[in-house]
Amino acid sequence: LAAVVWVYIWVRSAIRDDAIGFDFEGTLWNAGAAILDGRSPYPEPIRAEVDSGNPALYPPLLMVLVAPLTALPWWAGVTIWTALLGAALALALYVLDVRDTRCYLLALISAPVLNGLIWGNATLLLVPLVALAWRWRDRWLRAGVLVGLAIAAKLFLWPLVFWLLGTRRYRAAGAAASTAVAAVFVPWAVIGFDGLRSYPDLLRVAEEIYAVHGYSVATMLSALGVETDLATRGALAVGVAIAALAFIVGRRGRDEISVSLAVLAAILGSPIVWE
Question: How far is CA 221 from CA 48, 206, 213, in A?
Fold first, then answer.
């Protein structure tokens, strides 16, 4: 009963605030539609463009994959996307040998997952990629390709390479780097490299706007009076420090701790963090 009430509160609030699929629409759906129309999916790297709605900021991999969905009505597209996100989380638990049904239910109604499902945030798709990389960690090509795809989808997962290097999985680390580069630039080539040159400026403007609003280290530093640029660099420094620790721990054979630290570094090292 408590779970039903909990989910009802979240969904009712989302409907009231018109938040259903908000992230999906801004970051992927509109971008995919723009690609099919032959337009750039990215806004201009100026504050007025980035601080409007929910702009496309990811590398183009997911945008290209989502583009065919935009041929469907919005309600059908967002329903399919939400189902994919829920299935992604269930797959992650399954490949990690979780079999208790209660664990699946608890995961699906947890605040981060409910938030991700309601807003349609692509981060939930990264969970099975990381889980499978861990499951196949001793199969260098599989692990490397999965980590590379995760990084290409959302760049903040770069610390996972430190886990691979620390645990002496050099071929997997090489495969991850190669896959990430290919999975970033091949989709960009498909869209004629639109927005590539201005992409660093776009990320910088996004950090200036959003890094001080959320749950990131940069937000906390900004609240303490640190300048925005220094606050975002502080978050990156924290991420690098924890990634280095993941490398060191991996060298000592503590595989589980190393990968856990790498995931923590990815979260704390990102200047923009939400639930």
Answer: 25, 17, 11
Q: CB-based contacts of 233: which residues, under 8 Å, 6+ apart?
A: none
Residues with Cβ < 8 Å from 248, sequence gap 6 or more? Answer: 166
Confidence grade of residue 169 (pLDDT, cut at 50, 70, 90) = very high
Query: How many other C-beta atoms lie within 10 A of the C-beta of residue 72?
Result: 12
Give the position of tokens 């639930």.
275
Cα–Cα separations (whole angstroms), residue 159 to 136, 177, 189, 218, 234? 18, 11, 26, 18, 16
Confidence band for 168, pLDDT divided at 50, 70 and 90: very high
pLDDT at 213 over 90: no
> What is the pTM for the complete model shown?
0.92
C-alpha separations of 42 from 21, 63, 198 in Å: 19, 10, 9
Give the pair of three-digit tokens for residue 58: 């990811």
Residue 120 structure tokens = 């349609």
Q: What does each C-alpha distance from 68 to 34, 35, 62, 124, 214 come to in angstroms? A: 11, 10, 11, 20, 32
Whether 56 and 63 have beta carbons less than 8 Å apart is answered as: yes
**pLDDT band at residue 126, thresholds of 50, 70 and 90?**
very high
Using one digit for the tens of pLDDT, what is the confidence trace for 249-259? 999 999 999 99
Give me the DSSP letters along 192-258.
Answer: TTTTTTTHHHHHHHHHHHHTTSSSSHHHHHHHTT--HHHHHHHHHHHHHHHHHHHHHHHHTT-HHHH
